[in-house]
Amino acid sequence: MVLPDDPKYALKKVEEIREMVDNDLGFQQAPLMCYSRTKTLLFISNDKKVIGCLIAEHIQWGYRVIEEKVPEISSENEKVIFERQKAWCCSTSPEPAICGISRIWVFSMMRRKKIASRMIECLRSNFIYGSYLSKEEIAFSDPTPDGKLFATQYCGTGQFLVYNFLNGQNCP
Ligand code: COA
């Protein structure tokens, strides 16, 4: 975990990784809103490569995704295609939240090995000293189709919390 007060070389590395992740996500170089309040988790492979990155920030509010019913007869494959194609909508009523996942990324060759799940578990126990965050206290920033499929599985519901809406939310 890299924190805002860590040595410059560590912050520089995090910045390089964030730029790479943002390119992969197709984000325009979007600066983090509150850099001084972010916590970055890096998942390092045995051969010392960064294969996962999670950037979390303090937030106050999240908005619940409104789940659209998947047609009943769909196979698992069809469900994934449906999820990838549709836009997501969310409620306009804010709900209290504590931790925003600003970025979550796993190297393409290493996906579906529970690396993202392990990073969130680690985040939940380390984001606030001495407490373990519940899934209800976490929100995802502008989820991609992959992010939405992941969050739905991880949270156990398609009605997880989202926030930011492409940098629309300011620091608390
Ligand atoms: N399609 C369908 N289900 C998916 C999925 C996908 N692309 N990615 C994750 N899931 C679901 C699965 O049910 C999976 O369990 P299973 O493999 O046993 O079926 C479960 O979530 C846990 O996934 P996990 O292995 O922990 O996730 P991951 O390490 O592959 O990382 C992402 C998930 C989203 C971080 C990764 O796909 C990624 O980096 N994507 C590109 C960046 C991105 O879009 N980030 C999201 C920003 S919101």
Structure description:
By secondary structure, the protein is α+β, with helices and mostly antiparallel strands. Helix content is 30%, strand content 24%. It has four helices and eight strands. It has helices at residues 8-25, 76-85, 115-126, 145-155, and strands at residues 38-44, 50-58, 61-66, 89-90, 95-96, 99-106, 138-141, 161-163. Strands 1, 2, 3, 4, 5, 6, 7 and 8 form an eight-stranded mixed sheet that branches. Strand 7, helix 4 and strand 8 form a beta-alpha-beta unit. Helix 2 (76-85) packs across helix 4. The chain is globular. The mean pLDDT is 89. The protein binds coenzyme A. Coenzyme A binds at residues 25, 80, 104-106, 111-117, 140, 143-144, 146-147, 149-150, 153. The site of coenzyme A has 20 residues, from strand 6, helix 3 and helix 4.
Terminal CA distance reads: 22 Å
Structural class: alpha+beta
Cofactors, ions and other ligands in the entry? coenzyme A
User: Which stretches are low in confidence, meaning pLDDT under 50 for 5 or more residues running?
Assistant: none
From the alpha carbons, calculate the radius of gyration and give it in angstroms.
16 Å
Rounded mean pLDDT is 89
**Share of helical residues:** 25-40%
Percent of sequence in beta strands: 15-25%
